[in-house]
Amino acid sequence: MNKRQELMLNSKNRLQAQADILLNALGHKVDLTTMTAISSKVIDQRFYEVAPSDFMAVIEGQNAFAEEILTYKEYQVSGHIEDGILRGNSNVPRINKDDIAMDAVRIPIVDWAQGLQYNLIELSKATRSGNWSLVDMKEKARLKKYQLLLQNIAFLGSEQVSDVKGLLTQSDVASNSTTIAKFIKDMSVNEFYTFISKILADYSTNSNSTVMPDTFVMPMSDWLGLGVPLSETYPNTTKLEWLKKTFIDLTGNANFKIGYLAYCDKARNSHILDVGTGYNRYVLYRNDADTLNMNIPLPYTTTIADTINGFEYQAVAYSQFSGCKAYRPQEVLYFDHQL
Known about the structure:
The chain has 339 residues and is α/β, with parallel strands linked by helices. The chain is 27% helix and 23% strand.
């Protein structure tokens, strides 16, 4: 049919075309000829996927069916560090005693459930195609949706539940907007050297010099440009190699990790961070369970598909999870710019 004929379609033809689209919503109504072969392979849809456990501790299977997780933090509240030193052999009228204080941190748990439904006619039609399973495909799609939800929660938190935060959206983590004022890939040699000289010093100040970081995460768009030579003086060394060597040398940690996330790009977080604008956010932190973690008290679980009328079938998947929580926010530091 040419464009002129398409323009001449009457309302009945258009309605029939729309009906055909609806009838083929499951994909099993496809015109075939005697020379058509159906491939047994089904091409899956691709999504941006990253494992939260690569960036934080994920605790699974503990505290199922609770509404929140309460964790205590301990603090020393003793006096001067030299209290307790005894001088000479004189009698000591009073012995100094250490004391501690406790603080409770409450983490909300999110309940999640998603149904899956199909009927006997849909199942029978899909079976006739001979190359895919309606039930398996629906279950696969539901599981993928759940995995993408957890991923989004882990890094950005929830839009609906305001106190469920992600790695990039902690409200009590400090943000530095001067040390990284532009993409690292776009820095001149002198700007790069200045950045290198400041970033760990900034972290040390933020953490009160108690620990060294072991992870640096940056926007994906910046990461992809760090393969360029550092300078004409060092044409065989890329910016990424120099950056990683500096972190390893200064922290003394041969396993220091530099990673990237698309969520760190402002285009991916503008609905959460500085709404409408977003930040290109870098995170320098210590990746251990005491510093920050995410909980999945009840991992993804499904019920057995069942029917009450012999025609419609339904199965439910359910889970419980929390956001990411920084228990030691001073051991996490954000660097932001909006260029």
